[in-house]
Amino acid sequence: GAKFVHMVYCFARYVMIEDMKKRSVGTGIPFAEAVMWRPEDMYIAKARHRVAYNKLLQMLQREDFVTQEYKKKVQ
């Protein structure tokens, strides 16, 4: 039901935040901590969301590129 969906959402959010924290170590980008803040202003919350989304997308694209290059070199 709704409680299970909420629990899965909370768990997925926790996993994503921990992954973002792990990947952002040493980069000087504190966007993982910004995810945990509660919004005081919806404009700022949306801006933080865009920044976090773009950074995550960049990391995933970089990881995919490295994986593809590795597969090319293996062949």
From TrEMBL:
Residues 1-75 form the HAUS augmin-like complex subunit 6 N-terminal domain. InterPro entries: HAUS_6_N. This is HAUS6 protein.
